[in-house]
Amino acid sequence: MKVLVINAGSSSLKYQLMDPATRDVLAKGLCERIGIDGRLTHKVPAKDQKFEAEIAMPTHAEAIEAVLQALTDSDHGVIASMDEIDAVGHRVLHGGMAFTESCIIDDACIEAIKECIPLGPLHNPANLMGIEACQKVMPTKPQVAVFDTAFHMTMPEKAFTYAIPYEYYEKDKVRRYGFHGTSHRYVSARAAALMGRDPKGLKLISCHLGNGSSLAAIVDGKCVDTTMGLGPLAGVPMGTRAGDMDATILEYLMGRYGYDIKEMLTILNKKSGVLGISGVSSDFRDLESAAAEGNHRARLALDVFYYDVKKYIGAYAAAMGGVDGIIFTAGVGENAAGTRMAIASGLEYMGVKMDEEKNNTRGKEAIISADDSKVTVMVIPTDEELMIASDTAEIVSKL
């Protein structure tokens, strides 16, 4: 089965055409500047081929048309016609409480996604544009929605409930939702396979560390807690997001500088995190270089990040009553050996024992703890697109 995976943003659209059974990526690419002018970058991994073009994309529908033309092109295409595409899988950020798993996109699904727009105001409208564009251009193809929040819907009440008046949960659905769920689900399943264990009985901590970061506590293959909350601002400090903080800070800064809530949230989402501390960059590679040259604030930004991730690992181990495995994934987690070592160092009391030579790896699955470590520490590159394609294929095969 060939599945087209779509990840639509407000002015961009990422895509992959893949066979989930073989894990082969036939083609992938990016449409940019939708609604402005339009640019397509199309890659064929098997041929190491890259095609770029300026194409008018007034809406997402034209972007999808450009993708289909690229996929079927006589020179850089990988299929003879769009008839070879069996289904389309869409990444959707926020499914609220309505979705605990992936589902076929129908009118009821679309209405439920629309109802979640207040919870995901930046992403859900863009995801809907991608869905509607595909429905317009490929009306006969089955389409599946895969939600970032769905994996976390197994959290118990004690983990997702905020200590504010309960009416806000009852009336307004204010609770912890969590994100990066597709990534956490994929790497936790791969971790069980790598350890040669059944997911049932396993206690795992998944560390999705990148420009956006979150951790998840996973028992028996199900999420029991996660660091992000109602939105993706909570948890550990990130590239530009503040992470957990005292809400009094908002009142203090807004009163002192006259910020309105929109300005304050822009600061917390776009100007904070390791960028805010360092004043150097939101890119961890830049911070490591600056820290090595003696920049105190860059070193401090890294230390704050390491410290907070380590705190959550300890907290989740306590909440689960132990831990069997710790997973590092996403851009920083997969590629930064120094970051992994800094976070894992000091966890010996939990049974973590790292192997420096094994840890010297980038972008591939590996066990990086010592052979006699009581806790297995792993690097597992995430593959959200494969997870979306797999879900889509499974659901469509039952139609």
TrEMBL record:
It comes from the Bacteria. Mg(2+) binds at N7, E384. Its cofactor is Mg(2+); Mn(2+). GO terms for biological process: acetate metabolic process; acetyl-CoA biosynthetic process. One of its GO terms (molecular function) is magnesium ion binding. It catalyses: acetate + ATP = acetyl phosphate + ADP. Substrate binds at R91. InterPro entries: Ac/propionate_kinase, Aliphatic_acid_kin_short-chain, Aliphatic_acid_kinase_CS, ATPase_NBD. Pathway: Metabolic intermediate biosynthesis; acetyl-CoA biosynthesis; acetyl-CoA from acetate: step 1/2. The record marks H180, R241 as: Transition state stabilizer. Its main location: cytoplasm. It is an enzyme of class 2 (transferase). Its EC number is 2.7.2.1. The keyword Magnesium applies. It is found in: Cytoplasm. The keyword Cytoplasm applies. Gene3D superfamilies: 3.30.420.40. Keywords: ATP-binding, Cytoplasm, Kinase, Magnesium, Metal-binding, Nucleotide-binding, Transferase. The active site is at D148 (proton donor/acceptor). GO terms for cellular component: cytoplasm. PROSITE patterns: ACETATE_KINASE_1 (PS01075), ACETATE_KINASE_2 (PS01076). Homodimer. Belongs to the acetokinase family. Catalyzes the formation of acetyl phosphate from acetate and ATP. Can also catalyze the reverse reaction. This is Acetate kinase.
